[in-house]
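Need residues for this backbone.
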């Protein structure tokens, strides 16, 4: 809103010192981060008190995990802090007419409502299962289809095709300004008229860094056009659903999901910044997506909200995010990756979420298979998601395929080590921009 207010004043001929700073993505991104952090810090304590007052506490079953019983009664549904903090930063400093910002705001509220319903059933209806898996999956898939169809049908979601004319000159080096960035041309890579609806995305280890879902279509001609978009739509649905569930499964230790997601958010913000700037995308030879620079501001607010939330969620946690937070975080990450055409980088960037989800799937599958074959179920790890494997105090010789490599670890150490792995994966993802 501050951004639009300054735009209005500028159009009205009002000159306020410093008004021009609102034209710069970097300034608005920093301010969005600060606003989200401050709101989370200042409002978080009051929200936690309200949660305590209404006895919205975590219910805990004794599964033999170190420090688990002590968590009983800790306020949950703290994801409200994250959602409100993100909204504050975005509403103040983003261009609210930008299609990417609109989609991300919609996704945030959609996933927040889905997670809130799940937490509400658990806390107030005293049903530990919350929403059924089918209902939760339906909500995630529905969001995926809404985003996918918007990407397909909206005339505002386009990419610039590369051209081979090397004679185009650089007309500006003001790469940080958010206005007129879309009309910059440089090094003969892009031209303004080459705006297309595309099913291309980013893929590492190839010269152009691009992969077209059209290549997966078994048809050509008109049928091929519909087939490629159908494949792309299904891929978008899969990515958003997987990210939302992956973050939900990772939320099991104090600060684990929030800290890991903040690392992912920083990388997605950088990628959005580079992909939304013609000069930078041209230099790195990556896809240029007009208007996607606003996503960098959204992700700045997102990271700021997570940092502020960590003030209360780090060990020992004063509040848990619940599904209200975890589903929202995963939805934002998935939608952002799709919008900046980086969804195929997620298995590396979100490696923590990927491995956590994979551990649950493998554990369930192996348990069912061994129960059918041997009459009793066996496990690959002592407990899943994977972070509980390192925390579990129980030792069951002969019944676990992969025994603990170390004695039970304190959850703060497990969280810190997962963060370190997340940082390594984040740096590796950025390094792929230069590896062809």
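Answer:
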């Amino acid at each position: 809103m501050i951004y639009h207010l300054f735009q209005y004043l500028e159009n009205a001929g009002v000159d306020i010192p410093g008004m021009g700073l609102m034209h710069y993505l970097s300034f608005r991104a920093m301010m969005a981060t600060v606003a989200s952090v401050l709101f989370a810090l200042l409002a978080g304590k009051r929200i936690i008190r309200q949660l305590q007052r209404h006895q919205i506490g975590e219910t805990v079953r004794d599964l033999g995990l170190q420090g688990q019983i002590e968590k009983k009664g800790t306020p949950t549904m703290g994801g409200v802090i994250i959602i409100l903090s993100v909204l504050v930063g975005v509403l103040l400093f983003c261009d609210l007419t930008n299609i990417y910002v609109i989609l991300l705001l919609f996704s945030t509220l959609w996933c927040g409502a889905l997670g809130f319903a799940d937490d509400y059933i658990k806390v107030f209806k005293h049903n530990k299962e919350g929403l059924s898996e089918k209902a939760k999956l339906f909500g995630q898939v529905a969001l995926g289809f809404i985003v996918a169809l918007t990407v397909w049908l909206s005339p505002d979601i386009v990419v610039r095709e590369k051209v081979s004319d090397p004679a185009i000159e650089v007309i500006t080096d003001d790469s940080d300004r958010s206005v007129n960035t879309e009309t910059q041309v440089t090094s003969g890579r892009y031209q303004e008229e080459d705006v297309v609806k595309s099913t291309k995305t980013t893929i590492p280890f190839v010269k152009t860094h691009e992969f077209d879902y059209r290549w997966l279509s078994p048809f050509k001609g008109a049928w091929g056009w519909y087939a490629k978009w159908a494949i792309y739509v299904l891929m978008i649905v899969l990515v958003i659903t997987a990210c939302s569930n992956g973050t939900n499964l990772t939320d099991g230790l104090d600060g684990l999901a929030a800290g890991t997601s903040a690392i992912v958010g920083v990388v997605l913000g950088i990628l959005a910044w580079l992909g939304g700037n013609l000069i930078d995308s041209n230099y790195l030879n990556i896809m240029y997506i007009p208007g996607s620079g606003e996503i960098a501001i959204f992700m700045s607010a997102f990271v700021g909200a997570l940092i502020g939330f960590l003030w209360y969620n780090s060990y020992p946690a004063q509040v848990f995010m619940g599904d209200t937070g975890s589903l929202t975080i995963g939805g934002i990450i998935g939608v952002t990756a799709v919008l900046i055409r980086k969804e195929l980088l997620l298995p590396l960037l979100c490696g923590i979420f990927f491995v956590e989800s994979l551990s649950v799937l493998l554990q369930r599958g192996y348990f069912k298979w061994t129960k059918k074959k041997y009459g009793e179920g066996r496990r690959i790890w002592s407990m899943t998601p994977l972070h509980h494997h390192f925390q579990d105090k129980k030792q069951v010789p002969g019944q676990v395929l992969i025994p603990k490599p170390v004695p039970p670890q304190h959850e703060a150490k497990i969280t810190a080590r997962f963060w370190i792995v997340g940082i390594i994966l984040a740096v590796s993802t950025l390094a792929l921009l230069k590896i062809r």
